[in-house]
Amino acid sequence: MADSLSYQEYKELVQTQGQQLLDVLAFAATGQFDFEVEIPEGVDVLTDLAIGFSYLIDDLRGLLHEREEREHELEMRVAERTQELEQALTEVRAVQQRYIQREWTAYTADTTAAETFAIPETFLPALETAVTQAQTATQSNGQSNLAVPIHYADELIGVFGFSAGETRTWDEDEIAAVEAIVEQVGLALENQRLFDQTQTALAETEYQAQRLAQLNEMGAAFNTSANMEEIFQVAGSFTLKILGDVQASIALRDKTGAMFEVLAFSGDQSVIPTGTRLPVAKTAVGKAITENRLLYQPQDVPLEDYLDSRQLAAQGVRSAICAPLIASGSVLGTLNVTSFKENAFTASDLNLMRQITTLLASTIESRNLFQQIEERAAQLTKLTNIETALSQAQTAGEILTAVTEAASQSALATLLDITINKKGEPISTRAVSQWHKGSILTDAPLYHVDLSLTDMPSAHYWIRNPEHVFLVEDVDTDPRIDVQSRATAKRLKVGAFATIPLRSAGDWQGILFFSWRSAHQFTDEEKFLFQQLLDATAAVFARYKAQKAQQQALRETESLYAASAALNAVATYQEILDVLRQHSIIGQHAQNVSLNFFDKPWTPTQQPVWIDVLARYTELPTEVVQPRYRLSTFPAAVTLLKPNAPTILEDINSTDIDDNTRRLYVNAFQAVSTIFAPLVVGGSWIGYVNAIYQQPTHFTEDAVRRLMALAGQAAIAVQNVYAVAETQARADELKLLNEMSQALASMLDPDEIVKSIYTYAEQLLNTTNFYVALRDTQKNIVSFPIAVEDGVHVNWRERPFGSGMTEHLIMGKTPVLIEENVDKWQQQHGIASIGAGAQSWLGVPMLSGNQAIGVIAAQSAQSYVYNQNHLNLLIAIASQVTIAIQNARLFQQTRERARREQILRQITARVRGSADVDTIMRTAVQEIGRTLGRKTMIYLGDDDRGA
Description:
Layout: H1 7-29, H2 44-104, H3 124-133, E1 137-140, E2 143-152, E3 155-165, H4 172-224, H5 228-243, E4 247-253, E5 259-266, E6 277-279, H6 284-291, E7 295-297, H7 307-314, E8 319-327, E9 330-339, H8 347-392, H9 396-407, E10 412-420, E11 426-436, E12 439-440, E13 451-452, H10 460-464, E14 470-472, H11 483-491, E15 496-504, E16 507-516, H12 524-569, H13 573-583, E17 592-602, E18 610-618, E19 628-630, H14 636-640, E20 647-649, H15 659-668, E21 673-681, E22 684-693, H16 701-745, H17 750-764, E23 769-776, E24 781-789, E25 792-793, E26 796-800, H18 805-812, E27 816-818, H19 822-828, E28 840-848, E29 851-860, H20 868-912, H21 917-932
Antiparallel strand pairs: 1-2, 2-3, 4-5, 4-9, 5-6, 7-8, 8-9, 10-11, 10-16, 11-12, 11-13, 14-15, 15-16, 17-18, 17-22, 18-19, 20-21, 21-22, 23-24, 23-29, 24-25, 24-26, 27-28, 28-29
Helix pairs in contact: 1-2, 1-8, 2-4, 2-8, 4-5, 4-8, 5-8, 8-9, 8-12, 9-12, 12-13, 12-16, 13-16, 16-17, 16-20, 17-20, 20-21
């Protein structure tokens, strides 16, 4: 039905039914149970409570009915006993009157009761015979004696004796007459004794009736007593009235059953002060309790045998009764009376003590039951208020406030969330709300700390028994608390605590934890409420967590959408890093965050050489960070980094890492925790994101999962930015190469062309150490028109063609790229090392057709400065430069040939214009010599000499 109601209707239904239950409790608190509990429907919690109340009212109604029956039975027994005594008294009086009137005076007229009579010694033998043989005896011993035994109901009650002179004889008739008289005397004596007993019984009956009346008065006084203290006072005062000049006390067992406490005392002299606590063992009170019987001292046991009895005896007590107070088969304690008189108590007193204790125990039980009813009603009311407040709670603070303000205001209350492992077992907790002294703490230390349950082995008590509250009244003495858990409790300043496991639908949700700085004894109300809070709080906390998870999922989804949109719009590596920091855990409290890129993808068969830092956020000194790191110097990276999972180091100091990694992360970065998230695109592992924390940091599964999701998108963004950058770089390179091509096409001077090489090369690659070498095949030398050392132009002298790297490229006509250890490479190839050593070397031959005319080369003292792209660029430069040089040389040769042909035409014209041979020869020698710039001679041979 509740599913079809609106929120307001459901709220009104809850309030109406809750008020009905409160009215039931209020009516029950008056002690009236002649009503039926109406079971509401629609709200399961209130329906269950109403059913529970109904059972409780039925139980209470039965207990009260039983009590009334017991009281009625006691009254009936007292009335019957009184009636029996009165009837017996009437009969005794009638018998007494009859015997007094008929026979007593006939045989007592001649003797007074005041006279004393001494039996003569001569009469003793006859008397002894009459008594021992129970028959008439005669004897002559100076006198004639006759002894007749007096019987009544076959019982010898005396002897009737007659004495006469020695000459006197007793015939049978006389003896028969005497025996008849004696028989009548026996009847008279027995009547007198019966009368005396009747008088005594009558007095006793009147006394007992008076005592019974006092018992009834005591019962009435019990019914009007307001509290247990008044009940104890009534019991003590009436005990004194009933038993006379005694001292009375009441002792009740404590909850442990091992001790009892004197709660009330009545009398003139306090032999054991009120409030005295004594052990049950080795005490008279304890013996009466454990054996469940009335103990009368010193007749049952000597006073000196027990601890409390010896104390009483030392103060003059000579008689004591410890009567157990028995209710529902269990002993609550004892009612004790003492007297300074020897054997002060009769059997009647003992019976009265039993009746008093029965009445007192019944009253205590009834009052306790009524008090329990009131307490339970108050507890149920409080529980209803808690559940009502819980049903309206929307936050962790409201949940904790709803529970704590009604359950226990003296404690520090903490609501903790539980982290579970893959098996669903609790492994750690973290506080989500804390309450103290009426308010929620806004910034409690436990909010930022994950408490590992492995540090508290005693937690297995409540983990294995989640359906029960785990109560520890004293951390220092509770045997369930191990040393490690005790140390954790001391560190958190906890002296006592209550752990309420919160499980809903079989799943762990959290813990409700109440703690006190010192030892704390839990009240029955606290135990009841704590136990009842198990399911109610767990359900509400589970709902809160589900709502929070849903909200978090929505926020996370929105954040992921926002992050995805931001990553799609980034244009730089720094923007990618900024998005990651804004939307993931690496932006929370990290001192250094870097976006790292491999110089080549990391595959099972190939490892990168260098790790380049594309972007960085750091609070570290600039001198401890570098723009790139060589992978081989950090062997731990090979085992720690993975392409398909994050690498999480929450405690670097406890991680097995190599010395270089420790120096960098622990010493330089001062890292305590760190996390690596791989960057993978299309199955290709291209880099990672790294965050460094200088404080201990726990990475939750949700946070790591979110980081990995964003890392996957960030990898695509990195690849895109990288591709754009590479495309732009290639475009810039092509543009520069095109400009160089156009510039070289306009140059006709080889020297100018060679010098322009450096201008373009320095824009495309590292030319800190750079040179251009040209080979002169006729002179077999190598010249260096351009040489740069450490960024400065220098002049290198030409040298003979030898066996260096330049000659190796000219002869081999193949480009060379050496990424590291140039000297080793030269040794392996039998090449002489010329000049300063280098770690990286890049050289390209200048090929013209099938002939190498020179070399363009660059080198560096660092490894892996040049790559294949640099080699391709240098090949392109060398190709265009070689063509330009060849074109320039061809142009110069063509122009020189034309100039020479023109000179020859001019010389020919001048020679032809000469008149004689001598003039012709001289003109030819002069013009040719001037044109060639050389000394010119013409020899004319003589035919006769064969010239």
